[in-house]
Amino acid sequence: MALSRVCWARAALWGSAVPPGLYVVRRLQFVPSGLTWGAPRSSKLHLSPKADVKSLISYVVTKAKVINGKYHRFLGRHFPRFYVLYTIFMKGLQMFWADAKKARRIKTNMWKHNIKFHQLPYREMEHLRQFRRDVTKCLFLGILSIPPFANYLVFLLMYLFPRQLLIQHFWTAKQQIDFLDIYHALRKQSHPEILCYLEKVVPLISDAGLQWHMTELCAKMQHGTHPAVHDILALRECFANHPLGMDQLRALQMKALSRAMLLTPYLPSVLLRHRLKTHTTVIHQLDKALAKLGVGQLTAQEVKSACYLRGLNSTHIAEERCRTWLGEWLQISCSLKETELSLLLHNVVLLSINYVGSRR
């Protein structure tokens, strides 16, 4: 009995030094000098460390979701207006992060396979174009946030001026419609000025037939008639060289065209010309990719976004009318050479100013 107590005591002392998760078995052996303890024989539990980590992570994630749900319900119940802003902001961050990851995948694929921008499919080209504009706006906010404690002021400015400082991901549904209407109203202010310039250059056109076509087109614009595709394409020679070629445009014309394209007009003439060329070239490349894809493959939102980019206020126009208008635009754009892109630039006004439903 005493020997068994001693054995249990020594086993308990040995077991206290063994880390948790192991079972230690001691064997009592008979040797010539007497009794002695054999080497410990351990057997591990059937729970791997990886399983323990996964279980812990799953538990933490579940608890975090529960706490987050309670927090959302608390905000929605006690601070409903703030909760709406908070929800829009969080969803906007998620969408912007998804856009960034997609843009990175596209860029990586371009570098890996040596693909140029104009060789991409339409949706990837449009995604990169829009993401660049969004990043530019976000970088401006980042620069404003650099000084100490300036981030608090930036949050206030974002709340007061969401149209100027935030991208569309952070706009409410109502703000998207209202802000797009405001932007279109701003570019519509330049339409009469652009048409006036077209009338002034009629005497400078050397060909009598082209003079007549330009006069007829300006008269249709003034009387509220939507021009046909062939009426616009008949003037392509005027926009390839003097007086309406891209390199022959005057500073005031470029400022008006910049406003029509929602680009800043407050730049030197050299930079204005470069920006107009770059922007028009990108749209021309998008048009070629879209013609390959087909307008019928676009969703309703994609059609309206494509029309708005090209000068039509599509927020208040039916989807089918938008598809028809976009088809006319592609018919003109895909017929033009690179030297005739000035016509595509002016087409933002010519094709949209009198279209049914666009006079808002």
UniProtKB/TrEMBL annotation:
Keywords: Membrane, Mitochondrion, Mitochondrion inner membrane, Transmembrane, Transmembrane helix
Protein's cellular compartments: Mitochondrion inner membrane
A Pfam family per the record: LETM1_RBD
Domain Letm1 RBD: 186-360
Gene Ontology CC terms, in alphabetical order: mitochondrial inner membrane
Keyword Mitochondrion: yes
TM region positions: 138-161
Entry membrane topology: Single-pass membrane protein
GO molecular function: ribosome binding
Protein origin, superkingdom: Eukaryota
GO biological process, one term: intracellular monoatomic cation homeostasis
PROSITE patterns for the chain: LETM1_RBD
Presence of keyword Cell inner membrane: no
Protein name: LETM1 domain-containing protein 1 isoform X1
Native source species: Odocoileus virginianus
Gene: LETMD1
